[in-house]
């Protein structure tokens, strides 16, 4: 499906909330203006995973924000999510598209122009590229040169979202790269005030996109 670039503006990816209920944190992020949400959960399985996904989907629906599931097509279908995001070692985009149909979103991680082009050809609706800065969520992530990020954005006709260590202090360094938005983890879900953090990042994201 063809997605509106505007929903990529501030793409929040869930993270461990240190004891706080994740669904409550998600709601605060949504109140702060997050435009797209990815549920990424590595610890829960089975019914517990599905219950939490359904609850987060309910909160997203209240704010008309699409929910993306990380690397789990079955869960996306079971909870009625808007789509999935796939890494290079996950299910191939072509297979995910076959299972999800044309009405759901398929996002793919790509660090090179070649991989981005292939993802688009295989049916991806958007590309996630990074890590654009150092990141605490993936210790082995190698920073992606911003010139490469610009080339990726220029090489495909679908939106590209930057990810990896993005926060208030460095987001504007990505002006002029051509990205449609910014995926954040710790800078929203690791913040003491989730809603306020999201609000500030939405403002900065709009300013950064406007400078391209």
Automatic annotation (TrEMBL):
Q: Catalytic activity annotated for this protein?
A: 2-(2-carboxy-4-methylthiazol-5-yl)ethyl phosphate + 4-amino-2-methyl-5-(diphosphooxymethyl)pyrimidine + 2 H(+) = thiamine phosphate + CO2 + diphosphate; 2-[(2R,5Z)-2-carboxy-4-methylthiazol-5(2H)-ylidene]ethyl phosphate + 4-amino-2-methyl-5-(diphosphooxymethyl)pyrimidine + 2 H(+) = thiamine phosphate + CO2 + diphosphate; 4-methyl-5-(2-phosphooxyethyl)-thiazole + 4-amino-2-methyl-5-(diphosphooxymethyl)pyrimidine + H(+) = thiamine phosphate + diphosphate
Residues binding Mg(2+), per UniProt: 71, 90
- Which positions are annotated as binding 4-amino-2-methyl-5-(diphosphooxymethyl)pyrimidine? 38-42, 70, 109, 138
Q: Which GO terms describe its molecular function?
A: magnesium ion binding; thiamine-phosphate diphosphorylase activity
InterPro entries noted in UniProt: Aldolase_TIM (IPR013785), ThiamineP_synth_sf (IPR036206), ThiamineP_synth_TenI (IPR022998), TMP_synthase (IPR034291)
- Where in this chain does the record put each Thiamine phosphate synthase/TenI domain? 10-188
How and how many cofactors are bound, per the record note? Answer: Binds 1 Mg(2+) ion per subunit.
Pfam families xref list: TMP-TENI
Q: In which pathway does it act?
A: Cofactor biosynthesis; thiamine diphosphate biosynthesis; thiamine phosphate from 4-amino-2-methyl-5-diphosphomethylpyrimidine and 4-methyl-5-(2-phosphoethyl)-thiazole: step 1/1
Query: What cofactor does this one take?
Result: Mg(2+)
Q: Which GO terms describe its biological process?
A: thiamine biosynthetic process; thiamine diphosphate biosynthetic process
Q: Which UniProt keywords apply?
A: Magnesium, Metal-binding, Thiamine biosynthesis, Transferase
**Which residues of the sequence carry a binding annotation for 2-[(2R,5Z)-2-carboxy-4-methylthiazol-5(2H)-ylidene]ethyl phosphate?**
135-137, 165, 185-186
User: Magnesium: present as a keyword of the record?
Assistant: yes
Its EC number(s): 2.5.1.3
Instruction: List GO terms (cellular component aspect).
Output: cytoplasm
Gene3D superfamilies in the record:
Aldolase class I (3.20.20.70)
Q: What does this protein do?
A: Condenses 4-methyl-5-(beta-hydroxyethyl)thiazole monophosphate (THZ-P) and 2-methyl-4-amino-5-hydroxymethyl pyrimidine pyrophosphate (HMP-PP) to form thiamine monophosphate (TMP).
Q: Which family does it belong to?
A: Belongs to the thiamine-phosphate synthase family.
This protein is called Thiamine-phosphate synthase
Q: Whose protein is this, by species?
A: Christensenella hongkongensis
Encoding gene per record: thiE
